[in-house]
Amino acid sequence: MDFSIAWQKLNQIGRDLMAVLPNIAIGVVVLVLFVLLARGARSLVGRVTQGKGKSHSLSLLLSRLAYVVMLILGVLVAITIILPGFTPASLISALGVSGIAIGFAFKDIFQNFLAGILLLLTEPFKIDDQIKYKEFEGTVESIQTRATTIRTYDGRRVVIPNAELFTNAVIVNTAYEMLRLQYDVGIGYGDDIARARQLMLEAVHETEGIVQDPAPDALVMDLADSTVNIRVRWWVNPPRRADVLDARDKVLESIKNKLTANGIDMPFPTQQILFHDQTEVTDGDRRTQREGWPAGKGDVPAARAAISESSEQ
Which positions are tagged coiled coil (predicted)? Predict the structure, then answer.
């Protein structure tokens, strides 16, 4: 068997390898230098962003992006040194249609990634804010590049894609220092509205933890079936869920005790059922019948019993 051709091939491969060994060594050294530069860039970006008061999540994201960008740049430079014929343009052309297919396949991931960056930059809410999105409400635990996690008030974790939070309405309960609460209190129709309003405001002012400026107020909102409804409004600070529930509990207890102690009625819904009995002699006589209809002005029609008796005579 003739091994000369195989020997020549191996010999050529060895010579080619020896020729590129310096390039490989230089490429490895350059790659190591870029790794060190990437770590330095990550540390520098982290310190700069934290020094400017940015959120921890945004600082972490920008530092990671700086690290990844430097690494990609280092890999490209190292490959260019090792393979002089390689250029970034040739890489893009090599990807071709496959790059487009990959883009469509990862469309949702890229969309959530971009939305996460925009959320961290614009900061409509931050970590530890309490937000409400659709039926989910809780405290923001983390804002990642793909999704945001919130901890609900009953101790569950909800993971929401960033694209949904960026394109839909989100209620941020802790966006401002104060939050206004309200409750409708029903009093009886026979009670003095002005007196009841005064007592409610006194009860709110006497409650610990209620903001006095802006001052609480009480407005008549509805003449309901059984009650006159007065809406009491007050402000709390801070506006976190636990503080809101605590303030609501104290205010309602204080209002109820104050109204009861001063003889203001707080009636529950009632219905009155009237029975109409046509066998009674007062049936149809508006002056004496029990249904409570007004007698009216002028001549009042006679009762059916009186009409029937006169017709028989």
Answer: none
Measured between alpha carbons, how far is 121 from 144 in angstroms, rounded to an integer?
12
Counting DSSP H helices and E strands in the chain, the numbers are 8, 9
The model's pTM is 0.63
Report cis status (omega within 30 of 0) of the bond before 22.
no
Pick the closest to residue 21 from 82, 80, 91 (CA basis).
82
257 contacts 243 by C-beta, under 8 angstroms: no
Architecture of domain 179-261: 2-Layer Sandwich (3.30)
What CATH number is given for 124-172 in this structure? Answer: 2.30.30.60
Burial of 120 (0-12, 13-18, 19+ CB in 10 A): buried
Give CA–CA dist 116/60, Å, rounded: 12
Strands 147-152 and 136-143: antiparallel
Sheet hosting strand 157-161, strand order edge to edge = 157-161, 147-152, 136-143, 130-133, 171-172
Same fold across 124-172 and 179-261: no
Residue of 178, 189, 174 whose CA lies nearest to 220: 189
Return all residues near 121 (Cβ < 8 A) that are at least 6 apart. Answer: 58
> In the chain, where are the structural domains located?
4-105, 124-172, 179-261, 274-313
Number of other residues whose CB lies within 10 A of the CB of residue 68? 12
Q: List, in order, residues 6 or more apart from 198 with CB less than 8 Å away.
A: none
* CATH 3.40.50 for the 4-105 domain, yes or no: no
Crossing angle of helices 56-82 and 4-51, rounded to 10° = 150
